[in-house]
Amino acid sequence: MDVVRNGMDYKEYRNWFYENCIQMVICDSRETIPAALAIFCLAEGDPEMAAIYSANFGRDSDTIGTIAAAIAGALQGASAIREDWVKQIEAYNHTVQGISSSYFEYQAMQEIQVPDYRKLTNQFIHVIQGHSDEQKNIQNMLGRMMEK
User: 13-21 — which CB contacts under 8 Å span 24+ positions?
Assistant: First the structure.
């Protein structure tokens, strides 16, 4: 945060971050949280700029963007979000909800196959008895070998 407060712009910060802050795992909170807070500051609390900076940041940009833009949106309020973005998201959500509803309705109409548990139990018992019979045969064979 100090580097941002000391006057770095977005590109300078991104370059500094890639040289100094990269973790082994791309979604490491030790990387995403500081990046999101710095981008929030660089965007001066503007949700649109926070989203744009985050999208172009790289690494775990969706997480960084979610955090930075959410903080900015909470600070500025819903009126700070572009109307065309809101409409685009609402249209997408409506489409996705329609697709998922259709899928689940289709799945519900399919005949549900309930396993025959009695048959499965009998098969299981048969397998166990087979192993038991096999074990008895081995024991008998070993017993005969010991008698000799």
Answer: 13/38, 13/42, 14/57, 14/58, 18/58
| pTM for the full predicted model | 0.60
Closest CA to 68 of 51, 89, 80: 51
Domain extent listing, the chain:
2-80, 82-113, 115-148
Residue 58's SS3 state is coil
The Cα–Cα gap between 53 and 36 comes to 10
pLDDT tens, residue by residue, 72-105: 999 998 888 889 988 888 888 777 776 766 666 6
Question: What long-range pairs does 125-128 form, CB within 8 A, spacing at least 24?
Answer: none
- Rounded Cα distance, 32 and 29, in Å: 5
| CA dist list (Å): 92 to 3, 65, 99 | 38, 19, 11
Compute the distance between CA of residue 92 and CA of residue 114 in angstroms, rounded to an integer. Answer: 36
Torsion of CA 57, 62, 66, 67, to 10 degrees: -60
Reduced to 3 states (helix: H, G, I; strand: E, B; else coil), residue 23 is: coil
Q: How many CB atoms lie within 10 A of CB 80?
A: 13
